[in-house]
Design goal:
The chain is an alpha/beta fold. The chain has five helices and three strands.
Length: about 90
């Protein structure tokens, strides 16, 4: 069976980058800043499967120096355009 990375398709990658899930990220990210302050030492973060960098940008807004990693070059390209990253691999 051949592996197909559907996000290598530029049209899909661009569509994914613009997805909005109104009011859902609030629940996911609401408590994270307090958890970071309470339990995280240091200011470096790796976002595995970063896609177009949504979580990478969130981490940056929390003061982290970030590295995003993804298997899709198209997604990484979009993330680089949307995110001021240390590195996207």
């Amino acid at each position: 069976m051949d592996f197909l990375n559907s996000y290598e398709d530029e049209t899909r990658a661009k569509a994914y980058a613009t997805l909005e899930f109104q009011n859902t990220y609030y629940l996911a990210f609401r408590d994270l800043p307090d958890l970071f302050r309470s339990f995280i030492k240091g200011k470096k973060a790796i976002d595995f499967g970063c896609g177009t960098g949504r979580s990478t940008r969130f981490l940056q807004h929390q003061g982290f120096s970030t590295i995003g990693i993804d298997i899709s070059e198209k997604m990484i390209h979009i993330a680089n355009n949307l995110t001021r990253v240390v590195s996207i691999i």
